[in-house]
Amino acid sequence: MDLDTWLPRYDVRERHRVFVRASAARAWQAILAMDLEEVPLVKALVRAREWVVGANAVERRGEGSFFEKMAGMGWGPLWREDGRGAVMGAVTKPWEANVVFVPLAPERFATFSEDGWVVIVWGIEVAEREGGCEVATETRTWETDEETRKRFRRYWAWIWPGVKLIRWALLSEVRRRAESEADLGKGRGMSGG
User: Fold this and answer.
1) Which pLDDT score is estimated for 69?
2) Do residues 118 and 161 make contact, with C-beta atoms less than 8 angstroms apart?
3) Rounded distance, CA 102 to CA 92, Å?
4) What is the dihedral of CA 124, 139, 99, 117, to 10 degrees?
């Protein structure tokens, strides 16, 4: 997963990883089955942000795989190789109470420069390791002009702990699901690991 293809320049970079005692294929299935709206910590953080900024409650974004749900929120698919990883991205003004994510075509990410926007790409990847696999996420942001950069920095200063907690919760949930016989057991046709 090389985010340089879509966002070679960036102002913020967050990378997190977790070791999972299961195969990469099993971890990928756990990612596909993920519903962040059902993870209690993520739900609490989203509700807290809504309360602090006076946002409307976020409505459920439909059914389907994790990536389909993210696309329903406005994240555009940039790259995906099943079993290995995916990258999604959008432009946004995250400080707005009711934040909107606007997808861009993959070829527009490297050159998008319209003032007033934050360009965000994030990816998740799975790699086999001895005794299991590693699941990693990376998020990058780039602000298109100096005023937007200043505004985003003020926003980021108070939101980044929540962003880190969401990444931690996502990776913990992937690990829990991938390592759990109950969630992704052999009886459901998943390969063991």
Assistant:
1) 85
2) no
3) 6
4) -130
pTM for the predicted model, two decimal places? 0.83
State both tokens at 140. Answer: 């990058």
Half-sphere CA count of 140, side-chain side, radius 13 A: 19
Q: What is the pLDDT of residue 56?
A: 73
Residue tagged 């934050």 (tokens): 118
The closest of 184, 50, 65, 48 to 124, measured between CA atoms, is 65
In contact, 135 and 126? CB cutoff 8 Å: yes
The predicted model gives 39-57 an average pLDDT of 71
Query: 3-state SS string over the chain?
Result: CCHHHCCCCCCEEEEEEEEECCCHHHHHHHHHHCCHHHCHHHHHHHHHHHHHHCCCCCCCCCCCCHHHHHHHCCCEEEEEECCCEEEEEEEECCCCCCCCEECCCHHHHCCCCCCCCEEEEEEEEEEEECCEEEEEEEEEEEECCHHHHHHHHHHHHHHHHHHHHHHHHHHHHHHHHHHCHHHHCHHHCCCCC
Q: Are 24 and 142 in contact (CB under 8 A)?
A: no
